[in-house]
Amino acid sequence: MVNEAEPVEWVLAEGLTPYEAAVADMETRVAAIRAGTALERVWLVEHPPLYTAGTSAQDADLLDSGRFPVYRTGRGGQFTYHGPGQRVAYVMLDLKHRGADIRNYVCDLERWLIHALAAFNVAGERRDGRVGVWVRRPGGLGEDKVAALGVRVRRWVAFHGVALNVDPDLGHYSGIVPCGVTGHGVTSLHALGQLASMEEVDAQLRASFETVFGRRTVLTGSATV
Q1: Residue 62: is its pLDDT beyond 70?
Q2: CB of 47 within 8 A of CB of 161?
Q3: Exactly one of 53, 88, 163, 179 is catalytic; which is it?
Q4: pLDDT for residue 142
Q5: Is there a contact between 121 and 177 (Cβ–Cβ < 8 Å)?
Q6: Dist. CA 225–CA 212, nearest whole Å
Q7: How buried is residue 125: exposed, middle or buried, by Cβ count under 10 Å (0-12/13-18/19+)?
Q8: Please, which residues have CB within 8 angstroms of residue 64's CB and are 6 or more apart in sequence?
Q9: Which pLDDT score, from 0 to 100, does residue 222 have?
Q10: How crowded is residue 123: how many other Cβ atoms within 10 Å of its Cβ?
Q11: For residues 207 and 174, what is the distance between their CA atoms, to the nearest angstrom?
Q12: I need a surface site. Which of 132, 135, 140, 149 has the fewest CB within 10 A?
């Protein structure tokens, strides 16, 4: 089992983090976690506007290839958008100490987000066959995605993570079919009428992480890449 005395490092990136630099930093950290020379880590970032394509991405789902930079990445999933106003949490945990169960880990990530959203009076829900967190539209006429997930696991150390829409430009999603899912939309806390600041969201994500994962976190300051 994970040594409960060892905290999970909690780091906040300043400004907008270039995507390629973030991936390189994660790769380095994952190797150190695997070697036992670094703590597990949750790294909170915002990116400049960009699209990423996971391992299941279909070219036809990239509707406007010239709009923003497109990065092919090793995480699971399909196309998604990252940009200012969206909180990306890169979660680097050693799963071999957590039952080595990737499906259960993804469920825990969803449960973490749902728990955090509840603090803002947003009822996030899971959907079979659709990874991420969803909210029902008023009147029950459809539903929208408020948070996306995409993970990669190397020798049982997980990385990449989750993206929660706080107040991004939702129009930027029109250049892709988000996560390959048609017939549904995307939304954000602000679009739902919850005008929480990024700082408030970060605080709730941290509290909810400790509740759901049962691990204390230690804030080690901010970082730029």
Answers
A1: yes
A2: no
A3: 179
A4: 86
A5: no
A6: 29
A7: middle
A8: 174, 175, 176
A9: 65
A10: 11
A11: 33
A12: 140
- The values of phi and psi at residue 204, to 5°, are -75, -35
Residue type for 225, please? V
- DSSP string covering 137-206: PGGGS-EEEEEEEEEEEETTEEEEEEEEESS--GGGGGGB-GGG--S-EE--TTTTT----HHHHHHHHH
Tokens for 132? 């991420």
Where b means 16+ CB within 10 Å and e means fewer, 190-211 reads ebbebebebeebbebbbebbbe
Burial of 214 (0-12, 13-18, 19+ CB in 10 A): exposed
Provide the token pair at 215: 């691990």
Please say if the pLDDT value at position 178 is more than 60: yes
Contact residues for 96 (Cβ-Cβ < 8 A; gap 6+) = 156
Query: What's the Cα-to-Cα distance from 152 to each of 14, 55, 77, rounded to whole Å?
Result: 24, 10, 10
